[in-house]
Amino acid sequence: MQLHLIICPLACLTAGPGSLFLDARISRPDPGPDHPRSDYIESPVQLSHALINAIAGQIDGIILGKRRQIRLALACLLARGHLLIEDLPGVGKTTLAHAIATTLGLRFQRIQFTSDLLPSDIIGVSVYQRESGQFIFHPGPVFAQLVLADEINRA
Q1: Residues 21-71: pLDDT tens digits?
Q2: Which of 42-46, 86-90, 97-101 has the highest mean pLDDT?
């Protein structure tokens, strides 16, 4: 059984910013008359489980050996929660966040917390355009669908 996952952001539709549309297409070889049909997905729970496993498998191909952490991060994302990852430098915390965003088709931004961080570095800034005589807002990283606040302890 192969699960083909099609994920497209629906930020411009009625679902609202950051919403996702998951379309799972399941292709199976013809099992033949003697093959049991236990591999067919018949319930929404089975479909959800298959989707989560497919997403986790995709991310697991990028970050090796962190299957449990990947599943916990996905559970947090699905619960619309926030996730605090504490670990040693260089073990893939930023890569995990970027891989989740890329796999799900989300806009990803990283905020580097430094001692000179300003509010405009997070929310963005309005810049005056002399030609048009208007202020143009340039959104900051907080407007992304997945935001990584990195090195908070160093700020």
Answers
A1: 444 444 445 555 665 555 555 677 777 888 888 899 999 988 888 899 999
A2: 97-101
Torsion angle of the four alpha carbons 58, 61, 67, 72, in this order, in degrees rounded to the nearest 10: -40
Do the beta carbons of residue 128 and residue 135 sit within 8 Å? yes
Give the residue among 21, 141, 18 at the shortest CA–CA distance from 77.
18
> How is residue 94 annotated by DSSP?
H
Task: Specify whether the CB–CB gap between 10 and 20 falls below 8 A.
Answer: yes
CB 118 within 8 A of CB 99: no
Strand ranges in the chain using DSSP code E only, listed in sequence order: 2-9, 20-27, 108-112, 124-129, 134-139, 146-150
- With CA atoms as reference, report the closest residue to 100 among 151, 146, 66, 141: 146
> Which pTM was predicted?
0.66
